[in-house]
Amino acid sequence: MTPKVVPLDSVLAFEPGIRLKHDAVRDRYVIQGPEVLIELNETGTAIMKEIDGISELSAVIDRLAKTFSVDPATITVDVSEFCTALVMKRVLTK
């Protein structure tokens, strides 16, 4: 069964105890929490830096599209699926 992607009007936030942290040893960002450590690539880092608990996912996508000079339609599916995976892993809450 394929999970339903997070709706674009969802406001995403980090679950309690979860945070985005720069790992100086690896020189990359990680998601860290109790029993959770996820290393992020540049794309994942850019997405997670935009999650603020206030903005709808559509606004996050718009900001990312502007930052990287791409059409929002080009990245919407990828960003939605990434965020859906993190909601399922209990890293993000909607």
How would you characterize the overall build of this protein?
With 94 residues, this protein is α+β, with helices and mostly antiparallel strands. Helix content is 39%, strand content 20%. It contains 3 helices and 5 strands. It has helices at residues 42-50, 57-67, 72-88; strands spanning 13-14, 19-23, 28-33, 36-39, 92-93. The strands form 2 sheets. Strands 2-3-4 form a 3-stranded antiparallel sheet, covered by helices on one side. 18% of the residues are buried.
Strand order of the largest sheet: 2-3-4
Alpha carbon gyration radius: 13 Å
- Tally of strands: 5
Following the backbone from N to C, one meets helices and strands in this order, namely: EEEEHHHE
Total number of helices: 3
What kind of sheet is the major sheet? Answer: 3 strands, antiparallel
Summed over residues and divided by their number, the pLDDT gives a mean of: 94
Poorly predicted runs of 5 or more residues: none
Percentage of residues in helical conformation? 25-40%
Shape call: globular
Strand content: 15-25%
- N-C termini distance: 21 Å
Q: Given the helix and strand composition, which structural class is it?
A: alpha+beta
